[in-house]
Amino acid sequence: MNLKEIASKQIQDSIETKKAVLDTLLPQIEEAGKIASEVLKKGNTILFCGNGGSSCDASHIAAELVVRYKSGNERRALPALSLSADSAVLTACSNDYGYEFVFSRQVEAFGKPGDLLVGLSTSGNSKNVIAALESAKKIGMKTISFLGGDGGKMKGMADLDLIIPRKETARIQESHILIGHILCSIVEYELFQLG
Fold this sequence. Notes:
Substrate binds at residues 51-53, 64, 95-96, 121-123, 126, 173. By secondary structure, the chain is α/β, with parallel strands linked by helices. It has helices at residues 3-41, 53-66, 87-96, 104-110, 127-139, 169-192, and strands spanning 46-49, 80-82, 116-120, 142-148, 160-164.
């Protein structure tokens, strides 16, 4: 296999994954956008969490809501927070309680009834995201999971699951960020009529 074939195969796999998302997840993506929009319309906050690349996706999507998604869409800032962003909280909680609790501890601190927690996990087996979902439910928050493969242990825990029907982490993450962008686009349309 040469370098062109390596690149071509990954691009083709990405296209096929996104086609599968289009064919199987469109109603759930639309519902996720409606949930996020309603939460924000009521003045509530969206919290995001994930590990590794999913942590970066959590921060990325939160930033699109706080700042703006589409260039030229001038609007007010929206309350969104990535629970992966504060290194002092992450390291203190890991040291004092264990890494399993780094997100649930923050959900307890920042989450309120009516807020939304979006948990990202390509495997669906991230213990700290599972703990965050459990904490969010106790508080009375709405929950959405971005998952992959068979959904893992997280399947069915959230109010809404968005499960990418693939096993390869890279393809799942590419689709998660696409769905995150669509969610932001729906929010900007629903709240501000911005296209």
